[in-house]
């Protein structure tokens, strides 16, 4: 991946999450946080210091983590249940299904350090299946913000939203893409760049790479539409169908396996409504090896140059 320019400041979305959570908690006594021995990695130290009676640390017990969150929600609280995405979703999937989704409890699941953000800790800590697991369960909204601004907006939305929601947050720094004051809308994509030759759809850590890929393509005369699809479930079918009909080719990019995630969700809409050429970029159905998130994304063809090459090749097939 191209190194950040001197003017490009990278933001850890966990900071936006906790700053927003603390601000809301100061105004609403019902907001609580629950974590699994992850006060530091969830960046909840400030929340703990300000609201010591409203942070519950259950230890390394993810099934209990979700169960406690569901109990708090049933008692009228608004629990933000925080943990490493790989363990929050993998170890407690039954509790997410039965205690949160089936019971339709007002729990906010916050998957920290998602995707391949744990890098050198390897396959046991990569979370490249969480979209698929959670998207398959009824009643749970699935959201992967692209930057610090969208993270703050999504957290504020989650606090007001009645029902279960899964927020997928990385620890890998990303540049700010959306304007200050942005309002998050569940089920709505953000058009970051318009174009008529090809569409790139991404979310989370991949959105800024998609934008850089569009700049590379523009230098070669290819006009690329870029959609930030933070809301994976529900998904913006209208924006996807328009992209298919108006650009004729779609590339999806995600820090997730290509099976069951963003690419699959987009393909479901495309095949049923406006079939066009598609290419899903992501982890190609393997356990990602050990390595930094940026290194692994590059290795799986999701550097800006790699995304641009894939889009260009797809356009050639279209013609």
Task: Describe the structure using short key phrases.
Rossmann fold, 319 residues, disordered N terminus, seven-stranded mixed sheet, alpha/beta, globular, five-stranded mixed sheet, 12 helices, 14 strands
Question: How would you sum up this structure, described in words?
Answer:
The protein has 319 residues and is an alpha/beta fold. It has two domains: 10-175, 3-Layer(aba) Sandwich (Rossmann fold); 190-318, Rossmann fold (3-Layer(aba) Sandwich). It is built from twelve helices and 14 strands. It has helices at residues 13-27, 45-50, 62-74, 85-90, 93-102, 130-135, 148-160, 207-219, 237-247, 262-273, 293-299, 304-318; strands at residues 10-11, 31-35, 55-57, 78-84, 108-112, 141-143, 165-168, 174-175, 190-193, 198-202, 224-228, 231-233, 249-257, 277-283. The strands form three sheets. It has a seven-stranded mixed beta sheet, sandwiched between helices. Helix 2 links the parallel strand 2 and strand 3. Helix 3 packs parallel to helix 5 (93-102). The protein is globular, with a radius of gyration of 19 Å. 52% of the residues are buried. Mean pLDDT is 95; it is low at 1-6.
Number of helices: 12
- Could you tell me the mean pLDDT? 95
Q: In total, how many domains does the architecture comprise?
A: 2
Fourth CATH level, the homologous superfamily of the largest domain: Thiamin diphosphate (ThDP)-binding fold, Pyr/PP domains
Helix content: 25-40%
Shape: globular
CA-based gyration radius: 19 Å
Known CATH architecture of the largest domain: 3-Layer(aba) Sandwich
Largest sheet: 7 strands, mixed
Strand order of the largest sheet: 3-2-4-5-7-6-12
Order of helices and strands: EHEHEHEHHEHEHEEEEHEEHEHEHH
């Amino acid at each position: 991946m191209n190194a950040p320019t001197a003017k490009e400041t990278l933001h850890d979305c966990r900071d936006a999450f906790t700053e927003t959570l603390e601000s809301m908690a100061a105004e609403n006594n019902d907001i609580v946080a629950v974590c699994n021995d992850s006060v530091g990695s969830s960046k909840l130290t400030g929340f703990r210091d300000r609201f010591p009676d409203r942070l519950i640390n259950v230890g390394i017990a993810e099934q209990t983590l979700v169960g406690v969150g569901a109990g708090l929600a049933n008692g009228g609280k608004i629990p933000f249940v925080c943990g490493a995405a790989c363990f929050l979703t993998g170890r407690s999937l039954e509790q997410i299904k039965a205690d949160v989704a089936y019971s339709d409890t007002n729990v906010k699941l916050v998957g920290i350090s998602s995707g391949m953000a744990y890098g050198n800790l390897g396959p046991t800590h990569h979370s490249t299946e969480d979209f698929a697991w959670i998207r398959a369960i009824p009643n749970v909204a699935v959201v992967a913000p692209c930057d610090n601004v969208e993270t703050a907006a999504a957290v504020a939305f989650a606090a007001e939203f009645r029902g279960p929601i899964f927020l997928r947050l990385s620890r890998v720094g990303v540049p700010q893409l959306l304007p200050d004051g942005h309002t998050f809308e569940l089920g709505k994509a953000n058009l970051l760049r318009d174009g008529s030759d090809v569409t790139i759809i991404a979310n989370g850590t991949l959105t800024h790479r998609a934008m850089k890929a569009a700049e590379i393509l523009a230098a070669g005369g290819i006009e690329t539409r870029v959609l930030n699809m933070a809301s994976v479930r529900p998904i913006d079918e209208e924006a996807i169908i328009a992209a298919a009909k108006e650009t004729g080719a779609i590339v999806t990019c995600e820090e997730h396996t290509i099976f069951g995630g963003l690419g699959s969700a987009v393909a479901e809409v495309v095949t049923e409504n406006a079939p066009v050429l598609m290419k899903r970029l992501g982890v190609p159905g393997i356990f990602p090896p050990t390595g930094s998130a940026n290194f692994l994304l590059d290795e799986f063809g999701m550097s800006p140059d790699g995304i641009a090459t894939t889009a260009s090749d797809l356009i050639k097939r279209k013609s």
